[in-house]
What we know:
Layout: E1 2-7, H1 19-34, E2 37-44, E3 57-66, E4 69-80, E5 83-89, H2 91-94, H3 105-119, E6 129-133, H4 139-147, E7 154-159, E8 167-169, H5 172-176, E9 188-189, E10 192-194, H6 195-202, E11 205-208, H7 211-216, H8 220-223, H9 227-232, E12 237-239, H10 265-278, E13 289-293, H11 302-312, E14 318-322, H12 327-337, E15 344-347, H13 352-361, E16 364-367, H14 377-383, E17 387-391, H15 394-399, E18 413-415, H16 420-434, H17 437-448, H18 455-467
Helix pairs in contact: 1-18, 3-4, 4-6, 10-13, 11-12, 11-16
Amino acid sequence: MQNVLLTASECSPFIKTGGLADVIGSLPSALKKVHDCTVSVILPLYEDSNINQQEVNFVAAFNVPVGWRNQQAVLYKLIHNDITYYFIKNSYYFGRKGTYGYFDDGERFVFFSRAVIEAIPFLSFIPDIIHSNDWQTGLIPAFLKILQPIADVKSVFTIHNLQYQGAMPANMFYELLNVRDEHFFGMEWNGLLNCMKAGIFHADLITTVSPSYAKEIQYSYYGEGLDPLLHDLKDKLFGVVNGIDVNEFNPLTDTNLYKNYHQSPQDKKDNKKYLQQECGLPERSCVPVIGIVSRLVEQKGLSLVTCMLHEMMQEDVQLIILGTGEPSIEGSLLESLQQYREQLAVCNYFDEGLARRIYAGSDFFLMPSRFEPCGLGQLIALRYETVPIVRETGGLRDTIVPFNEHTLEGNGFSFTNYNAHDMFHAIQYALDLYRTPVLWHKVLQNIYTSSVSWDQSAKTYQSLYEKL
């Protein structure tokens, strides 16, 4: 039996800012189902963490060297859904509102990474594998190799988004890390201390969240400057597509919905009617609704949407957008509301309940991303029996098969080039099929049989762990 310790900067349901939290929240249970192992998770304890203090148990207090200082860490333990979670508390670094965005984020996660190493003697097991995720935990594989706190422990490092690398001035290596100068090479990139590079360089295995993204990041367009290193290490780089928790995302039991359903187009129409009411749009059962739940940023393709919005509004269609992001994109969408009040709804905030109702009440879910390591939105859309329209990149390419009206295969619609007109043509084609009942019925039948769970991916992780 293997002991696996997962570590990340966020995890649902305790603290969430994005898809990383959903992955770390659902992967442990999936691993336990397919793998003869114990799986535990270790996280920072933020002030905003959704934790009942009466439910956590004190484990230990210990010192963590951060440069010339010793910072105290307090380790707590919580059992949730048969998974053991450990939390590292330090009021100086994590006793603040919010999760990220502070000037000293680099130092905060240097502390956390070193604290995970120092916490190992106090855990209820000795890990065989420590599986770290994204730059906030990128120094953990490095510390494992350099400090060697336990014999034969192996490390896996997963890249969820290569764009965010935890880069700091080079002198932070000497100010914060307490390791010999000879190790600077394994953590430096382009003259900066780079936590993402440290994880990639030192890990025994590197994974990322889709096979296509694993290939893409070896080239300059997607590689965010690290592509030469990733190409050199390609023999230990694997792509494993994410899944979602199909119990958490279940239209048959989701209490956020107006009406629960399973493989029922009529019940989806009822959800559409109430969604139109909530968003201030005319109630029209026959009009196709396109939903977007996203950060309103260029990376997510929202600049393509603003570019083609007037052309889209010439179609008989309604567009509902939920999210916040770049002021220029938000401003452009809000300005268009004045002209298209009967076709466009823009909710420039985030509300989880409304997000679920958009997934359930929309006919299409649009994800025109410039790049998308995996994407969870298209998987949730499939689960809620809503047809994705995506750009063929990263995990979108790996999970959405474009519908072919000749072979009748495919569970969505897609376009190849990051181009506004290509996106619009894909939308027009999808709308044409929506108005062709026989073909639309087949698209829905294909969606009903699409797999979005962790089952296969958990087996892939099992094989990678065994490979170590």
